[in-house]
Amino acid sequence: MVAEDLTHLRFEDSSGREHAVSLCIPAAAEIYPLIYEPMYRDAELAAHLLPLEMAYLVATLDGTPATFESMQALFIDDTVAFRTLLAMRNRLYETIASEGRIRFGCPHCREGEVSFDLLSLTLALNAAPWPITDRNRIFLEYPALASDLLPGRRPGDVAVAAYLKVETPSGTLGLASPILRGTLHTIVQGEEERARELWEAPFNDPPPGREMWTYERPGFQAALRLCLALRKAGSDLEEAGITPEIFEKMPVPDFFFLDNIYYLTHYVDVDDAADRIQCRCEECAGAFLPVL
Ligand SMILES: [Zn+2]
Questions:
Q1: Helical spans, DSSP H, in 40-78
Q2: Which residue, 226, 252, 255, 256, is CA-closest to 241?
Q3: Are residues 184 and 44 in the same domain?
Q4: How many domains does the chain have?
């Protein structure tokens, strides 16, 4: 369940008039195409992109279903009201995207596991989570998995986790999603090339429904990499992995959560501070680092 105060709010616009707004949780397919590189983020893009994004996010405004036109009118007429919606978006996404759970498998006995949530993992690694929005809290930030980061440094003398299991925010909150649990693997170079051959659409002539399936879109780049990293536990997809079609149906906070967990466990450096962030297996008392 998502707390009602995250999705429902009454607020006053700049003329003091009261409004009631309710939000829904958009699917990844609706939101990830709206992620743009920093160089394109300007007033012109905002005027088109933000009303479009809000039309997916806002279920009703004053009892009326939100449309692109109604959100565009609000964007032009009332900056205070529009900023309120953006602040609601940020709070909703950031709260839900921190609700997932992760469990690291012990590399010594391979039976014990150590559990974290997003906050406890960032504390253990002494690392900030990857941001969902840009610094101005307006545009959605570039996903970590579309940023071509270098693998994090690892000390040679301390074991890292044997595997990483995830429960998505949808799993912990009981939301409808095709992906509730799975394991997160390190992406291998050859895999990504195969996946691009399989799924990427030609930029100039994409098949219907795959208009966004191109590496020109940072959201799709991250989505495709997450498809490769994620394996769904106990399902027929275990062998085949997860396709972009399935991925697109997940609520978008799950996308932010998985991107963040991949970032923290693969790209954050762990070197001098290694002795401070080891976790200890409850089965065999062996110590290891909560990263891959
Ligand atoms: Zn163990």
A1: 43-57, 68-77
A2: 226
A3: no
A4: 2
Give the pairing of strands 64-65 and 58-61. Answer: antiparallel
263 C-alpha to ligand 1 centroid (Å): 24
Q: Please state at what angle helix 68-77 crosses helix 79-97, rounded to 10 degrees.
A: 120
d(CA 135, CA 188) in angstroms, rounded, equals 31
Torsion (CA) 189, 195, 196, 197 in degrees, nearest 10: 110
The model's pLDDT over 12-53, given as tens digits with 9 standing for 90+, comes to: 988 999 999 999 999 999 999 999 999 999 999 999 999 999
Rounded distance from Cα 162 to ligand 1 centre (Å)? 10
- Write down the mean pLDDT value for the chain: 92
* Listed residues 96, 127, 160: the one ending a domain: 96
The Å distance, Cα 161 to ligand 1 centre, comes to 10
| Residues 133 and 11 reside in one and the same domain | no
Q: Ligand 1 centre and the CA of 115: distance in Å? A: 13
- Range of the structural domain that residue 45 is part of: 4-96
CB hemisphere CA count around 5 (13 angstroms)? 1
Q: Which two tokens stand for residue 273?
A: 């501070």
- Please determine, for residue 236, whether its predicted confidence score (pLDDT) is greater than 60: no
Return the sign of the alpha-carbon dihedral for residues 57, 62, 65, 70.
Answer: negative
Q: Model pTM?
A: 0.94
